[in-house]
């Protein structure tokens, strides 16, 4: 049975909320009912004891002393509930006739009324002076007499021979400042107990009714609350990759459902941008891959159909090799970015002197700059140690320098500098090239983005260099900034956290 219950699916969220609300309501109602019942019971018992105390005072007022003997007046008018068959007992006459007096206290029968008052009057020696008809059914402890004689009232709940609960109040009789006897007053608790039982029944019925109303109300309220979520789910089911322009309706109420709707719309907007970028990436990658393949195919077809001399074949093979190399760089860059997106590339970080890396890159590319009739040099190179992957940082510097060479005219100048401010190292790569328009700066790190196709169509490259640069810098917990003036040049600034040398 338990194994079968494990495979049962849990109820829906609406039903779970209803069940939890009902359980909490049950606990709260139980606590309230218990507190209410206990308080009411205590109040009723205190009132019951106060009534017994008042009746004991009435009895005490009807007791007098005559020649050292106690006598009791008729109390039936002052206490109508008093049991009628009561007798005055003469404890001072010890004759057998008195002992066999048939007029003594009768035995309390099961059929007697439950609201009768039991009364006993005793002198200081514990001799019974007066007793109501039902007092003989009770066997009271000695404390019920000794404690009042000592000046302290005594109260307790006793059971008679019929197993009926009787509340007893026992207090002292005083004449001036002298204790002359004891008055005991009692009454059945059955009427009070029946009233408490009826109260318990009423509380139970009210609790069942309240729980039913709470359950139905919580189920209705949860359904109303989930109505917006159901609309959100319905919209989510209708959205697919070809229809990402839909948005869920944002409710006017400023609640959690409104926040969820806004977040959902923001997520759909991000997905839409991601799909647009993915489609554009596929289109751009297809275009970039198609160009070298088309060139290779054209030159090989021409060579197969027309050319025959070894020099011409050598020229064709050279072009094929160059385009193959360009194709290989493009594929390699795409593979790097794909692996970076999946988090499969791990950096081998160690302390690296950024200023020394910059010097090495300038030395290795200085000849290439001279061939293009440009000057490549360093300015300030402050010692700066960063925690990073030396190979990736060299790739960043070389990509920025290559980008500056591609977009600078003959006679241009390219300078590099490294400085340290606070706890960060700043690598600046500046050129006097054609610059970048303000509208294009925020897009230059996108893959295959070309700022001006008319000006950059003669520029070689994969179109992924700056995308790789941005990824490497961010992987080193750094930042990259671009400042450019069209027609006057650009400055790329790499900011990396320094470490103590």
From TrEMBL:
EC number(s) reported in the record: 2.7.13.3
Region annotated Disordered, chain positions: 88-110
InterPro entries with a match to the protein in the record: HAMP_dom, HATPase_C_sf, HATPase_dom, His_kinase_dom, HisK_dim/P_dom, HisK_dim/P_sf, Sensor-like_sf, Sig_transdc_His_kin-like_C
MF GO annotations: kinase activity
Keyword presence, Transferase: yes
Entry keyword set: Cell membrane, Kinase, Membrane, Phosphoprotein, Transferase, Transmembrane, Transmembrane helix, Two-component regulatory system
Annotated protein name in UniProt: histidine kinase
Upper lineage: Bacteria, Bacillati, Chloroflexota, Ktedonobacteria, Ktedonobacterales
